[in-house]
Amino acid sequence: MVRADVPTVADTKLSFIKSYRKPIPSIYSNVIQELLVQQHLMRYNSTYVYDPIFALGFVTVYDQLMDGYPNDEDRDAIFKAYISALNEDPEQYRKDSKKLEEWAAAQSGSGIADFAGKDGEVEAALKDIAERAAGKEKFHYSRFFAIGLFRLLECAKASDPAVLETLSKALNVSKRSVDRDLDVYRNLLSKLAQGKELIKEYVDREKKKKAERDAAAANKSSAESVAKTEGSKPE
């Protein structure tokens, strides 16, 4: 259920466009717009509460999608405009994602699910998620959450499927839902791999065009300079 007193999808898309005014190549823009619509509906669901696993899931998808983008500064600016358009904090997304990745990397493979009996900032955040997920009222499960779990396991080098089951149970989320969404995610990764080939071709083509334009401009400037020099010589 979506809350009544919220921006429309059109409002969110307009906010993004106003925040980032440069043209985005269509091969990226189409996917970004699709993700923005999906995340708008998640963001303004009545049960949604921001959590770091969700943030990690989105950051993971975004970074993989935008890997190879022609300009790093523009890639970061697009990220900030995207999250800001959803009335959330892009710095918090990045900060929490990094914190979770570092925490997971320091855990043993199977120990990543043992957060309930430990103290710490990340452990406290995971306990809060588990409590809200158990109550169902202030927790909105989504595909980004599933991807965030997957990224945690990657960082912990936990390849045993049983660890995902244990972690899902500890967080009070459905393992069946997680498996389903991770299957979709794996298919997305496959498509991204194919898309990156197209992106590389696009980037190479644009670089070649720019080099040709620069060369043409340099030749024109050189020719004009020669013409001026010739014209200024005494007869």
From TrEMBL:
Q: In terms of domain of life, where is this protein from?
A: Eukaryota
Keyword Membrane (UniProt):
no
BP-aspect Gene Ontology terms: photosystem II assembly
Q: Which InterPro entries match?
A: Thf1
Annotated region Disordered: the residues are 206-235
UniProt entry keywords in alphabetical sequence: Coiled coil
- Compositionally skewed regions (Low complexity) per UniProt: 216-228
NCBIfam families given for it? PS_II_psb29 (TIGR03060)
Q: Quote the HAMAP family the UniProt record gives.
A: Thf1
**What is the protein name for this chain?**
Protein Thf1
Taxonomic source organism: Physcomitrium patens
